[in-house]
Design goal:
single chain; 351 residues; alpha/beta; TIM Barrel; eight-stranded parallel beta barrel; 36% helix; binds flavin mononucleotide
């Protein structure tokens, strides 16, 4: 997608542009996948990542264009959020561009086709046929579910075996009560139930389970999550989701829309949480950094703040897929400047 196409997309409301983009990617966009520089390779969660750049959840909600996205150069793609039953999500309009701030506010509310649809797509995708890439599945709960744990267990049971890793999304701001699952008592119940399910199901063996948290957590909540993660040997944490905060720096006219803020204004906040979590977990739990990355320098900052891998979303919307290669080149030059032979050596260096 070139700059012209990006400009053209901006003529449409965000959700229309998004579905047009998915349609374009469905045309089986296939470019030659070049091997990434070995200094970007990493073995993590028992998986081989050819580069550390991931696409964050919410872009390919229904597992429709994973291979095309990997062909663009991503090292890994996190699909979803998928809920057990299909749901429409919140009333439209529910996605807003904040162009001047290079940000987005969304209150989509887990619009998706449900887990049966995603299951069929993942079966068709077939991890063994997937060329050069890792696919994660991000799961959530339906809006009308009373007992959230059942929804997550069901998602893990059906979709977990079909992806390389599963992310438990307990941090989207657009499903009432969802973020309460991050509180001490609730998260522990959830973690234990998922561990039990994993133990009972042989095809989930060696499948890492990660938890995605919010950038708006209090110090004490972060501490609780860190302790709980260490005690329960959680495989990894994704830090962070979009924010309900509205920094005073925002200038776009859409700044007061309801929902989660993503993009540039989220960078400092989410990186701070990442850094804190790296410290609180003594660097013992792999972290995926996400929030506000718009270039390779910022990507590298996430790594130095403690992330082993990092993801982007909003910057892809504003800059198009050329950002992926640009980030790679910029990371390589940062590694060279710092005298590191592999990205792994830079993890947590600022903490
Ligand atoms: C339109 C939109 C939809 C999103 N949907 C999801 C979602 O379904 N599940 C999820 O875990 N995160 C979702 N996110 C959050 C992103 O995965 C990411 O955590 C957040 O946008 C911060 O990264 P960024 O600043 O690079 O965009 C969504 C973000 C946007 C902008």
């Amino acid at each position: 997608m070139n700059n012209l196409l990006l400009k053209f997309m901006r003529f449409f409301p965000p959700e229309i542009s998004h579905s047009l983009t998915i349609k374009i990617l469905k045309l089986k966009y296939s470019s030659q996948i070049y091997d990434d520089d070995p200094s970007l390779h990493q073995h993590l969660f028992g998986l081989d990542f050819r580069n550390p750049i991931g696409l964050a959840a919410g872009f390919d909600k229904n597992v429709e264009v994973v291979q095309s996205l990997l062909n663009l150069g991503f090292g890994f793609v996190e699909t979803g959020t998928v809920t057990p039953k299909p749901q429409f999500g919140n009333k439209k309009p529910r996605v807003f561009r904040l162009l001047e701030d290079q940000a987005i506010i969304n209150h989509l509310g887990f619009n998706n086709y449900g887990s049966k649809y995603a299951e069929n797509k993942l079966i068709k995708l077939n991890l063994n046929n997937l060329s050069k890439g890792i696919v994660g599945i991000n799961i959530g709960k339906n809006n009308d579910t009373n007992y959230a744990v059942d929804d997550y267990c069901l998602g893990l049971e059906k979709l977990g075996p079909l992806a390389h890793y599963t992310t438990i999304n307990i941090s989207s701001p657009n499903t009432p009560g969802l973020r309460d699952l991050q509180n001490r008592g609730q998260i522990e119940v959830l973690v234990k139930a998922l561990r039990q399910r994993k133990k009972e199901q042989p095809n989930l063996e060696n499948k890492p389970i990660l938890f995605k948290i919010a950038p708006d957590l209090e110090e004490e909540q972060l501490r609780d999550i860190a302790l709980m993660s260490l005690a329960n040997e959680i495989d990894g944490l994704v830090i962070s989701n979009s924010s309900i905060d509205r920094p005073s720096s925002l200038i776009s006219r859409n700044k007061n829309e309801i929902g989660g803020l993503s993009g540039k204004p989220l960078f400092i906040k989410s990186t701070l949480v990442l850094k804190k979590m790296y410290t609180l977990t003594n660097g013992q739990i792999p972290l995926i950094g996400v929030g506000g990355i718009s270039n390779g320098i910022e990507f590298y900052e996430k790594i130095k703040a403690g992330a082993s891998l990092a993801q982007i979303y909003t910057a892809l919307v504003f800059q198009g897929p050329k950002i992926i290669n640009k980030i790679k080149q910029e990371i390589l030059s940062c590694l060279k400047t710092d005298g590191f032979n592999n990205i792994k050596e830079a993890i947590g260096k600022d903490v």
